[in-house]
């Protein structure tokens, strides 16, 4: 047996070290992409003027890394690209689904001065740029379309009663099977057909186009004719498209297909129609219309911004505050810049493929038209002048204040709502009209409504400080209504209970007539309860404060007082304090109970006083208990006020005061609201 040979560890590690070094020094691999054209289905729709709309559906087989751009050579040199190009997987295209479509940006490349390999001039080229991450591995269908004038280029030539139409497709680097071309023509008496004449090689003119007498379709072209009332459709099919050679097609059509249709209208109407067609086809007129629309939009929006600023400044000065535009610059340049920014933004949205720049300008116009919540000019801690409180009847104090007139650019007013709705309707009509041509631009136009929101929804009346003598009218009226309802309900319940107790007491004192009186007791109790007045009654008045030397009130409160109150009761007042907020003033209600110190009324409300805060009153012999609801709502405020009214009410003469029942709805609500105060 041969001796075992010892191996050294050093030489065994050399391959491993070589692999590690190669991995460390390896450069990142560059992505590769390979594209093959598997088909090109073309539709050529020609109108009576000889202008054709060319639609391509190119089938691409992509291998390797993502395809981001594709150059197409040999397109029509006068091609006018139309929007809406995209690329979609083959399966989705067969199912007529665009859910997975990828937008494609088409652009004509500038002419290259370098000649081709055969010495001829370079062909016009078109570049397709795939948005996003590009096209990964798979089979896709590229769809794009453009317009070309065949009549102007001499590709439609009249030859006696017929016209010869020739057209050459793009040049592809790959050959493919089943080349198809569908030609749509205006209806004519004679049907179109394939031109099977034989000529030599096609000549190329100086513009890089196939001349009118160039090569025609070979006899191997199959054709299918479909005729309709207004259109003739001729489908051409060739079994194979050669590699590196553009497909040249030629058909014969009735020359009357390219003549204007005769109209049965009167001569005057025909002349007007020709004038309208000439005006519609004029580029200068279209440019003039766009400029006029831009000038009208500029004037309208600038005027709205200026009128809104004047209106808001007038209302703010009347309320004693200073207006605060979002962009603090003088009104004249601010209105002009707002109109100019809006017009420029809309124009960029229509002209550019990306709407970001246009949206930024529209946002700038919105900022120039917006207003912030005004800020008071006087110091918040300034003391008000002395004054006196005057009682006012409830109907007079809490009647609806008059509406503010002359406010048309505020969505909180009736005139503002009507004008805002009219402008939105006009914008909606424009969006509907634009949606037929381009849904993308229609969506951008709809989002531009934010420029109107800045005018109608900022600088509103609700953002101004309210008048303390008129602002809380609606709130205090609601509180008074709720307190009266709770008080009437509790008084009716107390009257019904008293009548029933009297009937039972009389029935127990007369044993002989107990059965008869017991049967009549409920009816008598109901009758006496309905006839008996509410006990105790409630007085509701308004209290206005008039400063010395001023005829206008500066505060309004709601005064509540029972007809029969405990000794030491002074008054119950419900007031509203306004605090500044981001969207305007915030109403904070407060309930004040004024009692005499050491009186029976103060002792009766000791339990309720724990939920409020105590302070000195207007006089040295007066104590004020202030209660604040947890939420500034009329329901909670009325619940606290009703509970205080019940607590300070005295029982009628000759009756023993009873504790309120816990099952009554009003005391339970009042207790919950009072416990939630402060």
Written description of the protein model:
With 678 residues, the protein is of the alpha+beta class. The chain is 36% helix and 27% strand. Helix 6 runs parallel beside helix 10 (450-456). The radius of gyration is 45 Å and the shape is elongated. Residues 192-206, 499-529 have a biased composition (Basic and acidic residues). Residues 192-218, 487-541, 651-678 are annotated as: Disordered. The chain crosses the membrane at residues 289-307, 415-434. Keywords: Membrane, Transmembrane, Transmembrane helix.
Strand content: 25-35%
How many E strands?
Answer: 24
The CATH class of the largest domain, by name, is Mainly Beta
Report low-confidence residues grouped into runs of 5 or more.
1-9, 198-217, 262-281, 532-536, 656-678
Keywords: Membrane, Transmembrane, Transmembrane helix
Region (Disordered): 192-218, 487-541, 651-678
Transmembrane segments: 289-307, 415-434
Biased composition (Basic and acidic residues): 192-206, 499-529
């Amino acid at each position: 047996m041969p001796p075992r040979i010892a191996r050294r560890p050093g030489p065994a590690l050399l391959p491993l070290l070589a692999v590690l070094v190669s991995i460390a020094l390896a450069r990142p691999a560059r992505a590769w992409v390979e594209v093959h054209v598997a088909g090109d289905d073309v539709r050529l729709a020609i109108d009576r003027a000889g202008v054709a709309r060319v639609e391509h559906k190119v089938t691409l087989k992509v291998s390797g890394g993502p395809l981001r751009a594709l150059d197409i050579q040999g397109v029509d040199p006068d091609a006018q690209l139309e929007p809406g190009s995209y690329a979609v997987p083959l399966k989705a295209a067969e199912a007529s689904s665009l859910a997975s479509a990828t937008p494609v940006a088409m652009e004509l490349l500038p002419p290259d001065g370098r000649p081709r390999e055969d010495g001829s001039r370079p062909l016009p080229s078109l570049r397709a740029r795939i948005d996003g991450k590009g096209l990964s591995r798979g089979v896709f269908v590229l769809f794009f379309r453009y317009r070309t004038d065949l009549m102007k280029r001499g590709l439609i030539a009249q030859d006696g009663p017929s016209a010869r139409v020739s057209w050459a497709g793009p040049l592809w680097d790959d050959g493919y099977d089943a080349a198809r071309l569908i030609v749509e023509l205006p209806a004519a008496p004679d049907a179109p057909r394939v031109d099977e004449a034989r000529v030599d090689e096609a000549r190329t003119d100086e513009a890089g186009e196939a001349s009118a007498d160039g090569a025609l379709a070979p006899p191997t072209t199959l054709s299918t004719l479909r005729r309709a009332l207004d259109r003739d459709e001729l489908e051409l099919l060739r079994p194979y498209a050669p590699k590196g050679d553009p497909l040249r097609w030629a058909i014969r059509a009735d020359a009357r297909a390219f003549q204007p249709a005769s109209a049965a209208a009167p001569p005057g109407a025909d002349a007007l129609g020709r004038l309208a067609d000439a005006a519609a086809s004029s580029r200068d007129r279209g440019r003039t219309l766009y400029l006029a629309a831009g000038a009208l939009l500029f004037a309208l929006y600038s005027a709205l911004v200026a009128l809104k600023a004047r209106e808001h400044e007038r209302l703010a000065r009347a309320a004693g505050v200073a207006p605060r535009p979002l962009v603090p610059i003088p009104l004249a340049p601010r209105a002009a810049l707002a109109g100019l920014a809006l017009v420029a933004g809309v124009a960029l949205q229509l002209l550019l493929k990306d709407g970001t720049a246009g949206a930024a300008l529209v946002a700038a116009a919105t900022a120039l038209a917006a207003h912030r919540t005004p800020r008071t000019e006087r110091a918040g801690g300034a003391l008000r002048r002395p004054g006196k409180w005057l009682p006012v009847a409830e109907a007079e104090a809490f009647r609806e204040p008059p509406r503010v007139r002359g406010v048309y650019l505020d969505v909180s007013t009736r005139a503002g709502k009507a004008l805002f709705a009219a402008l939105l309707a006009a914008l909606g009509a424009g969006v509907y009209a634009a949606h037929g041509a381009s849904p993308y631009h229609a969506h951008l136009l709809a989002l531009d409504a934010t420029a109107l929101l800045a005018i109608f929804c900022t600088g509103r009346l609700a953002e101004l400080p309210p008048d303390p003598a008129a602002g809380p009218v609606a709130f205090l009226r609601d509180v008074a209504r709720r307190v009266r309802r709770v008080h009437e309900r509790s008084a009716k319940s107390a009257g019904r209970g008293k009548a029933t107790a009297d009937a039972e007491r009389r029935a127990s004192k007369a044993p002989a007539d107990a059965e008869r009186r017991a049967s009549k007791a409920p009816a008598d109790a109901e009758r006496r309860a309905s006839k008996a007045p509410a006990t105790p009654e409630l007085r509701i008045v308004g209290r206005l404060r008039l400063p010395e030397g001023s005829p206008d009130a500066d505060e309004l409160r709601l005064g509540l007082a029972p007809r029969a109150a405990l000794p030491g009761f002074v008054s119950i007042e419900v007031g509203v304090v306004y605090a500044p907020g981001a969207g305007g003033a915030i109403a904070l209600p407060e309930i004040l109970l004024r009692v005499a110190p050491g009186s029976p009324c103060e002792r009766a409300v000791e339990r309720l006083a724990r939920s409020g805060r105590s302070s000195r009153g207007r006089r040295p012999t007066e104590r004020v208990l202030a209660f604040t609801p947890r939420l500034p709502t009329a329901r909670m405020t009325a619940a606290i006020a009703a509970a205080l009214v019940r607590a300070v009410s005295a029982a009628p003469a000759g009756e023993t005061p009873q504790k309120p029942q816990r099952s009554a709805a009003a005391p339970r609500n009042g207790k919950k609201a009072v416990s939630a105060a402060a």
